[in-house]
Amino acid sequence: MKTLTTLATLVALSNPVMAEHHEHSMDLFMSLDTNGDQHISPLEAKGHEELLEQFETLDLDTDGQLSKAELDLFKMQ
Ligand SMILES: [Ca+2]
Hints:
Blueprint: H1 2-14, H2 16-32, H3 49-53, H4 55-58, H5 68-76
The chain binds calcium ion.
Calcium ion binds at residues 33, 35, 37, 39-41, 44.
């Protein structure tokens, strides 16, 4: 998971368009992560219908939560 996050950060920093995307996805992540534990639970995703539909697909490590890197995959689709 750390590798994924690092990779996403590297891609974001090396590309201005991706950097902007990164900021937007950060906003989404922070607005969804209501308890601030750096993971999006199904409950936190509840207000976002499209995200909730893809929740299980995006949850690559199947821990039942979405990390920042996993949410980035949603935003890149
Ligand atoms: Ca959370």
